[in-house]
DgyrCDS4391 (Dimorphilus gyrociliatus), 194 residues
Amino acid sequence: MSHTYSTGRTRANQTRPNGTSGARPTDSSLRNHKATPETSAQDRMVRVDGAFTVIPPDAKKRDAIQRAAKKEEENYDKFKARSKKVYNEVGTPGGGLLEKPKPSPASSNLSNRNYLRLKREEYRSAVKKEESKKLEDMKQIQRNKALVNKETEKQRQKRLESDRRRKNEAFLNKLENKEPAEYGKNLHYHNKDS
C-alpha cells in the first residue's frame, strides 16, 4: 500500500508571494506583454525566448552596486593620494654636483666599443712590434754569419794562394836547379829492335 501526500495544489497552480503564478509565461503571452510601470514586478520574471533564457536586472540593486563601486573607487583614489611617496632631493653645500652623472647606456656601449677597439689595436701593434723585432734579430744574426763566412773565405783564399805560390816557387826552383844533362837522360829513346 502506497501513501501519497498531496497538498491539493499542483506546481502550475502555486502562486508566488508577489501574486504571480508559478507557471512560465508562454511565447504568445511574452509577445503580447507591454512594459508598463505597474507591471515592473512582472518584468523581473525570467523569460524564455526560444533557446535563450532572459533574466532582467534589478534596477535598484544595479544602482546600489554602482554607487558602492563609485564610493570604493573614490576611497581608493584618496588612499593612493595619501600614501604616495614624496622624494626630497637635498642639494649639496656649495651648489655643485659631487658625482659625475652616470652615462646613458648608449654612450657607455659606444665607449666600451671604443675601448675594446683601442685595446685590440694596442695588442696588434704590440704583436707586430714583437714580430718585427724577432725578424730584425734574425736578419742581424744572418748578417753576422755572412760576415764571418766572408772573413773565413778570405783567410782560406789567402792560405790557398800562399800555398799555391809556395808550391809554384818550389817547382820552379827544382827545375832551375837541375842540370841540362839530366834532361837528356830522360829524353833518350830506346829502340826495341836493338
Strands lie at 47-49, 52-54. Residues 106-182 form one domain. Confidence is low (pLDDT under 50) at residues 1-23, 32-39.
